[in-house]
Write a structure and sequence with these properties.
The protein is of the alpha/beta class. The chain is built from 13 helices and eleven strands. The chain is globular and about 60 Å long. The model has no long low-confidence stretch (mean pLDDT 97).
Length: 348
């Protein structure tokens, strides 16, 4: 398994939409961790170009993350919401697509990478078999024991357990407004539940930004951790300037569908406060409809009309180069584990 050969049990989260770059992937990988390239929102051709760039920059193995497409949403579900947004914002056309799913699968069969990870669902057993046949490991992101069971049945090699603390989109297989009344599982609870189900490796992700956090996840049974938010301010990340500048402030985060039609955690702003209550589950249709207003907000530095995805520990981010950050996190993890082991457990 790839995880077994890592010098540092840190996996770079695939942060689609800008932050994920070949340079960031290479920096984390060459520092002893494992880099995942985000292919979400990219065409198969653009994905291929990023794979080539990464291969030219490092001989180490790396992975690619794909979004599993869901069904189209009937326009009647989101028509009123788009009319609400259009009263004060420039709204684009809502559209459905599969994020070039079939072409990307074909690409990764023709040009295999060490790991193919999946978000928003689990590929079919037949699709997993195709990727296994060319030597790729399959990692599936799950948010519940039920999703973990599906992924294991279909042949996933590694589960990525995403706690509610995580920044960006929730990786739930099915996103439904009616499920919001159920508290999403935090990482520690999810990690314990999932590791009790299987002997296959589980990667922990969500709200981890320090060596102490990594140590806690490893002690709870994780084989490695996947970190995203902590890398957003690194110089190698493609994080836009508006987002980058906002990360250091003590702004609370919240879950919202307002920007994309799929539940995601980001820095709370006025758009989220005004529209989260009425936003339906309609991804990727709303994602495309809000693209113009988000692009304008990024250009003008308007924090209130742009999605700034971030996990709950975003205030702990730094501007260190990614390789240095991996080294610091590794050293801090060792220190935290040593400190924990030095504490004597009292007899009952």
């Amino acid at each position: 398994m790839i995880i077994d050969g890592l010098n540092v049990p840190i996996v770079l989260a695939p942060m689609a939409g800008g932050p994920s770059t070949p340079e960031l992937t290479v920096a984390v990988t060459d520092a002893g961790g494992f880099g995942l390239l985000a292919a979400g929102y990219l065409s198969a051709a653009d994905t291929a170009a990023r794979i080539t760039t990464t291969r030219l920059a490092t001989a180490a193995p790396f992975g690619v993350n794909l979004f599993v497409p869901g069904p189209a949403t009937p326009p009647a579900v989101f028509a009123d919401y788009l009319a609400e947004l259009a009263r004060d914002h420039k709204v684009g056309a809502a559209k459905y697509d599969t994020d070039d799913w079939d072409a990307k699968l074909d690409l990764l069969v023709a040009e295999p990478v060490a790991v193919v990870s999946f978000t928003f669902g689990c590929p079919s057993a037949a699709e997993i078999d195709r990727l296994h046949a060319v030597g790729s490991e399959i990692w599936v992101t799950v948010t519940s024991p039920g999703e973990a069971h599906i992924a294991l049945e279909r042949g996933a090699d590694v589960l990525i357990a995403q706690g509610a603390e995580a920044g960006g989109h929730r990786a739930t297989f099915v996103d439904r407004v009616e499920d919001d009344a159920t508290d999403p599982l935090g990482l520690l609870a999810l990690l314990q539940l999932v590791t009790a189900m299987t002997d296959r490796p589980v990667v922990a992700t969500g709200g981890i930004s320090t060596g102490a956090g990594i140590a806690a996840a490893l002690a709870a049974g994780a084989a490695a951790v996947q970190l995203g938010t902590v890398f957003l301010r690194c110089p190698e990340a493609g994080t836009n300037a508006t987002h980058r500048a906002a990360l250091g402030a003590a702004t609370p985060t919240m879950l919202t569908r307002a920007f994309t039609g799929r539940r995601a955690r980001g820095l709370r702003n006025q758009f989220m406060i005004e529209h989260s209550a009425t936003a339906p589950a309609a991804y990727p249709e709303i994602h495309y409809a809000t693209a113009p207003l988000r692009a304008e907000a990024r250009t003008t530095g308007n924090h209130d009309d742009v999605n700034m995805w971030a996990g709950q520990t975003h205030t702990l981010t730094t501007e260190l180069p990614a390789g240095e950050l991996v080294g610091k996190l590794a050293a801090d993890t060792k220190a935290a584990l040593k400190a924990a082991l030095s504490r004597r457990i009292q007899d009952c």
